[in-house]
Amino acid sequence: MSISREISGACADIGMTIPLLFVLANSGFDAAILLFGWGAAYVWSSWHFKVPVSVQPLKSMLVMTAALNITMPTLAAAGLLFGAVLVALSKTTILQKIQLWLSAGIVRGIQALTGIGLGLVGISIFQEYGFTLLNSEPDYEVWTVVFVGVIAASLFLFERIRAVLVLGLLIFGLSYSLVGGSSQEAFASAGVPDMWWSSWALIRWDHVLMLIVSQLPLTLANAVFAAEQTYKDFEVSSGPTSIQLASNIGFMGLVLPIIGCFPTCHGSGGIAAHLQGGASSYKSTAGLGIVYMGCAFFAGFGVIDVLLGIPIVIFVALLLADAARMVSFVGRLQHKRDWIVLLFTVVVGGISQNLAVGVVAGIVSMSVLNFLGKDESHG
Question: pTM of the prediction?
């Protein structure tokens, strides 16, 4: 086991975590609570599964929370109910029946759409903030675009030196931030109620329903079924099953909102990032969780601001490399029928900008192909 590769793998998904931390903090959440909760989820999940695992905020809920200014009581209620639904599904045969509907073409389509989504997130963050997250005005220039492209391509193409590249980038980023890239003003307005349940009467139940309905299909597709497939892609024989993943995501949904933390899942893109980055032991991601919790404890000393002072171009490069990796998995499809189903899943999901709609399109196309195949056999 190479220590440098384990560290590289542990840090490979921070390109997603830190930008989303910034987005939530500017939406009124306490960055220290977020890091503590996500860190605890990393430690528990890594120890529980005994393999490297990702912990990412629920993206659909995050987007809607930021767009609709959803309050913490409403989000907490949604997180708790969402967790209860997943735990219930993991204890019945319903989850297994849902999984039977998803062919290889659909799962690869989910992974491709997730990869494309990751890439677009990276590009949009880069366009909005430029070189660092703390800029009031974007400052990206031609050289920064070239830098991101070269680093992302190198991370994707040269896996043998990925660990060295990631460590070098992180050392450079932290040095830049410590010299003058961070700002104590980033979270001046941040904070969530210490006792959110005291505002129970303020819960918008229509928003709760909307959050759950939009998030559930995405989580089942990307953080349960595609996540299980990702472990198989990287030949992790002891990787968790879809039932175990759903149960643990549900458990975290029942715990994290209680302390005012945004709920999380085990995104397949994050799992791929950790494994591709070099993580082979659960201690890698558990260690990252301990670091996050440490940052939360020392938040008053500006530790979080140092993290956010790391140049955004580093995170964007990591995101783009991971996105390319996720999309590249489609090359493992072997049958024409799976490629047709993949096409319907990706095209419909992309046009609708809704992964759940893409999954439905994939299931419909698979059913039609199966029907036509049976009809031909009878003819």
Answer: 0.76
